[in-house]
Amino acid sequence: MAASSQIAQEQQRSAVLHRDIHHIPKQAVRGEGSYIFLENGQKILDATGGAAVSCLGHGNDQVNQAIVAQINQISYCHTAFFGIKTFEELAALMVNSTGNRLTKLFVISSGSEAMEAAMKLARQYFLELSTPQPQRTRFIARRQSYHGTTLGALSMGGHVSRRELFEPLLLPNVSHVSPCYAYRGRKDGESDEDYVARLANELDAEFQRVGPETVCAFVAEPVVGAALGCVPAVPGYLQAMKRVCEKYGALLILDEVMSGMGRCGTLHAWEQEGVVPDIQTIGKGFGGGYLPIAGVLIGEHIVDTLDKGTGVFRHGQTYQGHPVACAAALAVQKIIREQNLLENVRAMGALLESELKRRLKDHPNVGDIRGRGLFWGIEFVKDKKTKEPFDPKLGVSARVQNTALEPAYGISLYAGAGTVDGVRGDHILIAPPYNTTKEEIELIASLTQRVIEDVFSKISTS
């Protein structure tokens, strides 16, 4: 039977609208620790935790027991009618983790929902002030960013390919400035200080262009995830951006859905930046993939404004504060603390950085290796000196991802494209669980090296 005919028949048997209807994914049947086991018996080293989600790996008994215990108590109740102790405990834990600098937690089911809620909350804040500012309807974000896939969140992001089909539907009141992307954005001989000053001036100019009195917030990822491939801000950048926001009375929203909750070595990525956001979105490592959950952490001044105003956040969803999801996240966060996993993230992250750079920094097609904690990206280039990217038609990052999943390697590497300008450029992400071991880190680095050497040896001869 022809391969195309077999795929067509398999697709007809599936009632699932897969991400690519021409590709039937391999069936996973079990997860244990850092590994996923497939129906065909293959074992995959999950070096990315999906999309940097599985921060404790797979099959954690403590989390599973917490989920079952909550189900046995109550699996769902609507937050308009009832409260849940698990939710209260989770919120208290998260607020305490910020040193009470962010004082309320709003819980929903996905990062996209978190960004939608953050946008609405920012807008409502300005309407609830003692002297309302209804003219504030705009947001400023960054190019080569990703903040979610719903229409508001997609409008906020600068991910060209994900926006492309839906541009006519996207919000006209979001504009974008340059990302903090030192590998390509910093000029030759330019210091970090000068680069930060230039980006701050660009943001200031954008405030002036759109009307500073019209802006609700500036939105950024402290470490850019899928859109750029684990690009951390240079020292002083977020502080400078916050100063611009404060100058014009706008809020700073930090999207830590991918980079937060310990992924970068501190529970909150902003802890390393010397800046506290007005609003923070969290997700992925919040619940470790055990159940869908994300959240919004909110500054006291915003809470106080609502308290003195209507006292009501004009936003709600059926599954917000879901009891079982909260139980899962609470268990995950307790394990991170009890097992001192942030220290392991920092130690294993340093080892991963060292191993990747030792093995790959001199590879002619590896342009940059960057990241923080257990959140690392590798950017590929056609020419190392000029940083010229590959032709997008070659699908370099997808080739790396697909090759890595082959039985010869058996490792997940998360592909990203459009790194340079939203269209050109390729990178991969590596994001192993917080409880990973030295042996697993060394294996990840070794397999990644072998996969990259395999892929580029074929590209150079094709």
UniProtKB/TrEMBL annotation:
Essential cofactor(s): pyridoxal 5'-phosphate
One MF annotation (Gene Ontology) recorded for this entry: transaminase activity
InterPro entries: Aminotrans_3, PyrdxlP-dep_Trfase, PyrdxlP-dep_Trfase_major, PyrdxlP-dep_Trfase_small
Pfam families per record: Aminotran_3 (PF00202)
Key words, A-Z: Pyridoxal phosphate
Any GO CC annotation of this UniProt entry: cytosol
PANTHER family associated with the record: AMINOTRANSFERASE, AMINOTRANSFERASE, CLASS III (AFU_ORTHOLOGUE AFUA_1G16810)
Family, as annotated: Belongs to the class-III pyridoxal-phosphate-dependent aminotransferase family.
Record's protein name: Aminotransferase
Species of origin: Rasamsonia emersonii (strain ATCC 16479 / CBS 393.64 / IMI 116815)
Upper classification of the organism: Eukaryota, Fungi, Dikarya, Ascomycota, Pezizomycotina
